[in-house]
Amino acid sequence: MTDKSVYVYCSSRSGAIPAYKEEAEKLGKAIALEGWRLVYGAGDVGLMGATTRTVQAADGDTFGAVPTHLVAWEAGKPIWRNNLTK
Asked: How far apart are alpha carbons 1 and 35 in whole angstroms?
């Protein structure tokens, strides 16, 4: 387990400006390189998804958290959804 965590909240859309996605990926890589854990809303789309996937691709630690009343509305990572149905 890591000593530090950072919570990132960003868009569930990538938007029309490619630089936003590039910056989200840079942030994800920096979080992983620092050895910090990314805490996020468990979404897997848009800028949040890009940040999360980049952290995970760099073998970084992530923790997705979403209130149960929002589960039906969120596009979560497949592992996250599978764990809810068990």
From this structure: 10
The CATH code of the domain at 5-85 is 3.40.50.450
* pLDDT tens by residue, 22-71: 999 999 999 999 999 999 988 788 999 999 999 999 999 999 888 777 76
Q: pTM to 2 decimals? A: 0.78
* Contacts of residue 66, Cβ cutoff 8 Å, sequence gap at least 6: 41, 42, 43, 74, 76
Residue 40, classed as helix, strand or coil, is: strand
Dihedral sign from CA coordinates of 22, 25, 31, 32: negative
Instruction: Count CB atoms within 10 A of the CB of residue 8.
Output: 18
Distance CA 86, CA 84 (A): 6
Type of residue found at 57: A
